[in-house]
Write a structure and sequence with these properties.
single chain; mainly alpha; 20 helices; elongated; Exo70_C; transport; exocytosis
């Protein structure tokens, strides 16, 4: 028990000591807290001063950086000013960079107008910009003018497909364009022909012109830029046309020209249209597209540059379409109509902007006018043929000049089948093949040929072959029936008989036979003399006529000589009556229809 009491007393004593220690620690900590609070109070002013100093340093850094930027702008201004004052000739690219720097400087100080020097710097930079833009304008004018020379014709010819280039033979005179006679095959081949437009301005110059134009646009000098470009480039294009030989001709000018001269000029015009539209205008549009970024300005410039040249080209076509109609003009009108249709897709693309609308429309109007004039000219030709009242026979028996003219005319018409079909399709409803066939069948003078068969059909050809055969039969009857009577036994004996056949020579007097041979000789010599000078141009018809006569005449003559020749050969001078052998007649018949001069049948 004592032990427990002792242990309890020790525990009380220990707890009392721990409490005392705890109280002492609390007192010490409380003293520290009081001192720290006092220290904090004492340090607060120092902390505030340090923060202020740090903020001041930050403000100084920012100010120094701003000052550095401002000083940099002043430095850039001095550099730009030096370049501007030197001008653009020495180093155009550096000059353009200086202009851009000045614009950047103006924007900078315009955004920092609180700076005392901002207004002054802005004014100085703008004045300098004004001078720079003026120099740029002069540089653009000078550079564009230097490289805006007319294109030589030979250079344009070299850009054409081989089939359209002038031939070496044409350089000495004649048609210098090297154009060839019309053919539908050639027309189709042109659809795939490749044209290579020339570069009107060197490629190394184009970026400089582009940058100069861009600077002028940014400076608000768009109108001045437009004027310079229009004047310079339009002059170059018009000079190129004049070098080619393009002329502005009126209807009166056309009326005064001889047909040969006018025909040559029309051929040249057709060639010029291809060259100018497919080469020159394409190349000119490429120049515009590369220099100007702004679509509206680009389209306006191109329209103004080409307007006068387009009008000059179309004016000749208009003058021809409005001039007095004549049959020989039909085919050149069709040629002109063809070239206008050929270039129409190119015109629609090249002159596709709203500023080129009048030019597109003018080209379409000319195409329709040429088609209408061609159709009216064809109608005039038909009417003139129908009204021709000449009944005069041709002395040499050849084809009448009017018939030859009509045949040749229709032959040319066949060469323009597709063009005429397109023309009829443009103005008339219905089947254009039937319309063309109807027109060409209105005149019966033509000789059947393959083109007619293709266009008009077998029935038409067969009908006209029968007509030709009827005329051939009529010729045999009229020309040879009388002479064949000389070889008939009719009148020599009591009964009737065929040519030189049947019956005997009994009761036939030698005098009667002599008269028959004499009459035959006179008639045959007259026929030979006259019909050897006649002309049958068609070889097949000429040979068929000779053969038809020979098949009737020679057997009758042989039979007559065989039966009655002995009566003459037994008397005096038989050669006076029997002048020709059957072989002589065959040789002389071969001379018929050759268009020869007077021939002695007894040579």
């Amino acid at each position: 028990m004592e032990t427990l009491s002792e242990r309890a007393a020790l525990m009380r004593e220990s707890m009392q000591k721990s409490q005392s220690v705890t109280d002492n620690m609390v007192a010490i900590l409380g003293s520290f807290d009081h001192r720290l609070s006092a220290l904090e109070t004492a340090m607060r002013p120092t902390q505030l001063r340090t923060h202020s100093i740090r903020r001041a340093h930050e403000n100084i850094d920012k100010t120094l950086k701003v000052a550095e930027v401002i000083l940099g702008q002043f430095d850039l201004k001095r550099q730009a000013e030096a370049k501007i004052l030197r001008g653009p000739h020495e180093d155009l690219e550096s000059y353009l960079e200086a202009v851009d720097q000045l614009r950047s400087i103006v924007r900078f100080f315009s955004g920092n107008k609180s700076l005392k020097s901002s207004i002054g710097v802005i004014n100085q930079a703008n004045n300098l910009l004004g001078k720079a833009i003026f120099k740029l304008e002069e540089e653009f004018r000078q550079l564009l003018t230097s490289y805006s020379k007319p294109v030589e014709p030979d250079r344009l010819f070299d850009c054409l497909p081989n089939s359209l280039r002038p031939s070496a033979a044409s350089s000495g005179g004649g048609d210098a364009t090297g154009t060839k006679p019309h053919s539908e095959h050639q027309t189709k081949s042109l659809e795939t022909a490749v044209f290579h437009p020339p570069a009107l301005i060197p490629a190394r110059i184009m970026p400089l012109l582009h940058d100069l134009a861009q600077q002028m646009v940014e400076a608000g000098q768009q109108q001045q830029l437009f004027n310079i470009y229009r004047e310079t480039r339009s002059s170059a294009v018009e000079q190129t046309l004049r070098k080619l030989g393009v002329e502005r001709l009126s209807k009166d000018d056309v009326q005064k020209m001889q047909w040969e001269v006018l025909e040559a000029k029309i051929g040249d015009w057709i060639h010029f249209m291809r060259i100018v539209v497919k080469l020159l205008f394409v190349a000119e549009k490429s120049v515009c597209d590369q220099i100007f970024d702004h679509e509206s300005l680009r389209d306006q410039c191109f329209a103004e540059v080409t307007a006068n040249s387009v009008a000059m080209l179309l004016s000749f076509g208009e003058a021809i379409a409005k001039s007095r109609r004549s049959p020989e003009k039909l085919f050149v009108l069709l040629d002109m109509y063809e070239i206008m249709r050929e270039i129409q897709p190119d015109m629609d693309i090249i002159f596709g902007s709203k500023y080129c609308g009048e030019m597109r429309e003018a080209a379409k109007v000319l195409t329709k006018r040429l088609a209408q004039t061609a159709q009216e000219t064809f109608g005039d030709f038909e009417e003139a043929v129908e009204k021709d009242a000449t009944k005069t026979a041709v002395l040499d028996g050849t084809v009448h000049p009017l018939t030859s003219y009509v045949i040749n005319y229709v032959k040319f018409v066949f060469d323009y089948q597709s063009t005429l079909k397109q023309l009829f399709k443009e103005f008339n409803d219905g089947d254009e093949d039937e319309q063309l066939a109807s027109i060409t069948t209105q005149d019966n003078a033509g000789s059947p040929k393959s083109e007619a068969k293709d266009l008009l059909g077998d029935d038409w050809v067969q009908i006209h072959r029968r007509v030709v055969q009827q005329h051939a039969n009529q010729y045999k009857r009229i020309s040879w029936s009388k002479i064949l009577q000389c070889l008939s036994i009719q009148g020599l004996q009591g009964g009737s008989g065929s040519f030189g056949d049947g019956g005997s020579t009994t009761n036939v007097s030698r005098a009667m036979i002599k008269d028959r041979f004499k009459s035959f000789n006179i008639q045959f010599e007259e026929l030979h003399q006259r019909q050897s000078q006649w002309t049958v141009p068609d070889t097949e018809l000429r040979e068929s006529l000779r053969l038809a006569v020979a098949e009737v005449l020679l057997p009758a003559y042989r039979s007559f000589i065989k039966r009655y020749g002995p009566l003459i050969q037994g008397g005096k001078n038989p050669q006076k009556y029997i002048r020709y052998s059957p072989e002589d007649l065959e040789r002389m018949l071969a001379e018929f229809f050759e268009g020869k001069t007077s021939i002695d049948p007894r040579r």
